Amino acid sequence: MINHVLESMNEVITNNYDQSHQAIDIVPSDGKDTNIIALESGTVSTAIKNVKSTNHKSKGLATYGNYVKINQNNGKTALYAHMKYNSVKVNPGQHVNKGDVIGTIGETGNAYGKHLHLEIQNSNQTKENPIHSLNKPNTNTYTPKQTNSNTYKSTNTTKQSTNITKNTNITKNTNKITYTYLNAPNYHYGSIVDGLKSIGSDSSYNYRKKLAKHNGIQNYRGSYSQNIKLLNLLKNGKLKKV
Fold first, then answer.
1. Is the residue at 95 inside a domain?
2. CB burial class (10 A; 0-12, 13-18, 19+) of residue 145?
3. Backbone angles phi, psi at 94, to 5 degrees
C-alpha cells in the first residue's frame, strides 16, 4: 500500500529530490485545491499560518510561506510548505494522527504555482528523499475520506511501463522547416519530469523552460497547467525538441 500526503490521493511529482532541491514538489492531478494530510502521527513543532501571498524575494524560512513542521513518532521530521493563507489547521504542541488534515495546498512564500513542498529529515538531521516515506508500507488503519483509486506517480517506482517508446527522432516537415519531436506514447502517468526521463531526455527545469518556449508556452514557471501542456504534447509525439 502507498502512503498519501494529499487527501484526494492523486499526487503528481513536479520537481524531484536532488542535492540542490532536498525535497519534492507535489500537485494534485486535477489541479484543484486539496487538503494536505499528515504522513505520520507526531507532534507539531512549527505552524506558520499568517503569510497571505507569494513572495519571490523571500529568504530563509520565509521562502516556505505558510508551513507546518511535525516531529513524527518514528523519529523523523516532516515539513509541509507553501500552504494556502488561513488554511493551516494545527498549532505548535498539538498531537496529530496519521491522515489528519493539516492545511490546504497553496502558493505562499517563494512558490511558482500552487503545490506542496515536502521535506523529510531523518533522526540524524539529514534531509532524505520523501519518496521513501510515501512508498513505505502502510500499517496504519487510517482510510482517507475519499476513495479515489489513483496511485502515486513517482520517479522511483519500479512499476512503470517498460514499453516506453524511446525514439526521440520523429521528424516532420512543415514549410521546409524540419523539427525533431519528443515522443512517449506509452507513458501513462502525470509528471512531465518522469515522462522526459522515461525516454532518456533531460528533465531539468532549465531544459523544460527551453522546451516550453520552443513549443509556444510563454513565461514558463513550472506551474501545473504549463507542465500538463508539455506532457500532453509529449504523449502525442508533438513536443518539439530543443
1. yes
2. exposed
3. -80, 140
In a domain, 161, yes or no: no
If asked whether residues 186 and 120 sit together in one domain, one would say no
Q: What is the DSSP letter of 224?
A: H
Structural domain harbouring 18: 11-134
In a domain, 5, yes or no: no
Q: Looking at the domain assignment, is residue 145 inside a domain?
A: no
In the structure grid, which three cell numbers stand for residue 168, read together? 526521440
Cell numbers placing 228:
500538463
pLDDT digits (tens, 9 = 90+) for 107-150: 999 998 899 999 999 988 899 999 999 876 544 433 434 434 34
Number of domains in the chain: 2
Please name which of 37, 15, 194, 165 lies closest in space to residue 101, comparing C-alpha atoms.
37
**pTM recorded for the entire structure:** 0.61
Instruction: Please give the Cα distance from 34 to 224 (Å, whole number).
Output: 14
Whether 96 and 174 map to the same domain: the answer is no
- For residue 214, what is the enclosing H or E element? helix 205-214
Residues 55, 61, 66, 69, Cα dihedral to 10° = 160
